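Re: [ENG-882] Designed sequences occasionally contain unexpected residues at chain ends

Forwarding the minimal case from QA. Structure tokens:
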């Protein structure tokens, strides 16, 4: 699994470098809209992500469990002054740092991928999930830098594709933290409505903002725990969002839903 995760990251670097190198310095310096990051700032954010996750990868591999903070994405970008640095310099550093991470990930013992990681106030996840989520996060921002309409679909080479819970994306909550927060809703098998507020790539492959159309369909990753039929003959499944670092606004991570809500 470590080798596959490392290859997942290596493939993303090789696939995206030509398009990133084709961006001119002028294009990289221009924000797409007022208040948004420029390509230089967004790539700088990916360097910050590499920096923070580098520590998580190492400590999660060496310690019984990892506990560490989240980080202020906007603050890191502003303090580094990425908007003032040359695009070629940033791109070279991003490439070299991620090639280092490829080597690191390939050397992580397989059994350490199950290490529990506590990051900030988020629900605990495994080290394997942290690594894969790092690459997904990187791919999302590269897609945004390159102006793609949809996120690049994950090939599923590294881990088994997760089960998806259908949700309804009802509104755009806030552009901060970037790329933006959305509110999702779903009903459990008892008809109780639950709300999830998280960054929009968690539930939707399209780029969303306050001008997008709502409500719209979405789906979040979940882990089926048990399946049965109730006395009315309904097919039910107990699911967990815990493994994906997602929880409802009530702090819940486990729910019983109709199996038909899953795909």
């Amino acid at each position: 699994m470590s080798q596959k995760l490392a290859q997942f990251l290596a493939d993303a670097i090789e696939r995206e470098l030509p398009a990133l190198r084709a961006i001119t310095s002028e294009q990289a310096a221009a924000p797409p809209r007022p208040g948004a990051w420029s390509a230089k700032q967004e790539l700088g954010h990916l360097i910050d992500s590499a920096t923070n996750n580098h520590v998580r990868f190492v400590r999660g591999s060496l310690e019984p469990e990892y506990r560490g903070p989240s980080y202020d994405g906007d603050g890191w970008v502003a303090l580094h002054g990425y908007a003032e640095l040359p695009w070629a310099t940033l791109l070279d550093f991003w490439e070299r740092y991620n090639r280092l991470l490829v080597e690191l990930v390939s050397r992580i013992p397989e059994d350490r991928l199950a290490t529990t990681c506590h990051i900030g106030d988020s629900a605990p996840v495994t080290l394997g999930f942290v690594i894969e989520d790092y690459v997904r996060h990187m791919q999302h921002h590269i897609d945004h830098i390159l102006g793609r309409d949809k996120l690049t679909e994950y090939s599923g080479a590294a881990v088994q594709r997760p089960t998806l819970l259908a949700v309804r994306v009802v509104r755009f909550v806030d552009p901060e933290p970037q790329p933006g927060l959305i509110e999702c809703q779903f009903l459990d098998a008892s008809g109780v409505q639950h709300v999830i507020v998280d960054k929009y790539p968690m539930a939707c492959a399209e780029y969303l903002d306050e001008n997008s159309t709502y409500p719209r369909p979405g789906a979040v990753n979940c882990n089926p725990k048990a399946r049965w039929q109730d006395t009315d003959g309904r097919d039910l499944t107990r699911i967990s969002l815990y493994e994906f670092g997602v929880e409802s606004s009530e702090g819940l991570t486990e729910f019983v839903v109709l199996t038909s809500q899953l795909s």
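QA comment: On inspection the terminal residues look reasonable. Helices lie at 2-21, 25-29, 39-62, 73-80, 87-106, 127-145. Proposing we downgrade this to a documentation issue.
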